[in-house]
């Protein structure tokens, strides 16, 4: 049963004008896609660009060129570029800084290094242990050189960020570390 409302517009009652809001970026992207974008796979198998070299953003012990030289078995100390990432924050995992998602606009300063190969990336991951995992990030260089910003990678804390900030036992990280020893 439909109930009628007791609210009636009077013929001369002004009403607010309809305001059409601009489409969201998501809507614009969808509107610009071809009608068959979900089913047309032609061209979807083209080669991806090479993964290396790629910049890695460092914020802790890897910001020391001597450490990188030793870990990567380099003949000379590497060139690091001063940089920042935005939207992250640092917590403490024991004596070590641990990168986690932060508030919008929050800045973490550090350095970036151009990792040349999968082998170098694996050496860095081994050094960082499974307490950290590689994640994509947008790197903003602060040294005035080109490029000024670029898509890259960084090591983020693999455990529970809330437990890290509250400095309490991290069951998620413990389970991750034990899986490596038991598996």
Automatic annotation (TrEMBL):
Keywords: Transferase. One of its GO terms (molecular function) is transferase activity. Coiled coil: none annotated. Residues 1-10 have a biased composition (Polar residues). Residues 1-23 are annotated as: Disordered. InterPro entries: AIG2-like, AIG2-like_dom, GGCT-like, GGCT-like_sf. It comes from the Eukaryota. Residues 56-162 form the Gamma-glutamylcyclotransferase AIG2-like domain. Residues 13-23 have a biased composition (Pro residues). Belongs to the gamma-glutamylcyclotransferase family. This is Putative gamma-glutamylcyclotransferase.
């Amino acid at each position: 049963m439909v109930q009628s409302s007791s609210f009636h517009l009077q013929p001369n009652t002004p009403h607010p004008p309809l305001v059409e809001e601009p489409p969201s970026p998501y809507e614009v992207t969808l509107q610009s896609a071809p009608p068959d974008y979900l089913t047309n796979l032609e061209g979807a198998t083209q080669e991806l660009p090479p993964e290396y070299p790629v910049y890695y953003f460092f914020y802790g012990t890897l910001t020391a060129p001597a450490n990188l030289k030793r870990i990567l078995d380099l003949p000379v100390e590497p060139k690091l570029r001063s940089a920042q990432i935005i939207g992250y924050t640092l917590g403490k995992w024991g004596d070590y800084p641990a990168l986690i998602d932060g508030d919008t606009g929050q800045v973490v300063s550090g350095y970036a290094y151009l990792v040349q190969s999968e082998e170098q990336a694996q050496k860095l991951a081994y050094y960082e242990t499974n307490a950290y995992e590689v994640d994509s990030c947008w790197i903003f260089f602060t040294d005035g050189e080109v490029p000024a910003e670029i898509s890259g990678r960084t090591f983020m804390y693999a455990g529970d960020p809330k437990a890290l900030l509250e400095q309490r036992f991290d069951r998620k990280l413990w389970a991750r570390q034990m899986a490596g020893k038991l598996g």
